Amino acid sequence: MPKLIDSHKRKNQIAEAAWKVILKLGLEGASARNIAKEAGLSLGSLRYYFDTQEALLEYANELTSERITQRVDEIFENDNNPKEKILQVLFELIPVCGDLKQEAEIRLIFKTHALHKREAYTADKDGVYLAIKNVMSNMVLLNLLKKELELSAETERFFAFMDGLALDSLLRPGYLTDEKAREMILYHLRSICKEDIG
User: Fold this and answer.
1) pLDDT in tens, 117-160
2) Residue in 127, 143, 63 with CA at minimum distance from that of residue 93
3) Which ranges of the sequence are annotated as binding DNA (predicted)?
């Protein structure tokens, strides 16, 4: 009897192979042939799941946000102190700090590539943006934010800060250490919170 293959699992495997190729060769090296080879599949098998390279890369991009959102949700669902959860989420979003290094790097590659292709950017599909909105909502619920802050503007500012920090961690890996990234996040939190949460 032939072995049944979980289509969703196989598509994720192909997307993860695409990530590896992109990290090694850049987006210009992410050909269907290279990705199929990395995934251990024939080109025909890869085409069964993704009929175009564009569809494959779009799926690989969406998977990064899905994984970030999944990890953030897991953190917020655990039994830790609420303030600890907020810090853990923020530290996870920076490539030098958390387990999401690969996803963070791939996410930024896709994001900057969209600029060159003149594609519209939608923050509401970005895992990091959704994580920051989640963090800000939790800080509102915990009454941690300074009263004079405008929530929408501070959410956008925090997102821009975290994106910049993540990009800097990739561009200057020796400069931005785990400790320095954490210090900068805590410094930002002190500027928007009524009390020290670190």
Assistant:
1) 666 667 778 889 999 999 999 999 999 999 999 999 999 999 99
2) 127
3) 31-50
Backbone φ and ψ of 80, nearest 5°: -65, 165
Distance from C-alpha of 144 to C-alpha of 81, rounded to nearest angstrom: 14
CA 67 – CA 131 distance, rounded (Å): 11
Contact in structure between 106 and 30 (CB atoms under 8 Å): no
The full 3-state SS of 33-45, as one line of letters, equals HHHHHHHCCCHHH
For residues 108 and 170, is the Cβ–Cβ distance under 8 A? yes
pLDDT digits (tens, 9 = 90+) for 80-106: 899 999 999 998 888 776 556 778 888
Statement: 1-51 belongs to CATH 1.20.120.80: no
| φ, ψ dihedrals at 193, nearest 5° | -105, 150
Q: For the domain 63-192, what is the CATH code?
A: 1.10.357.10
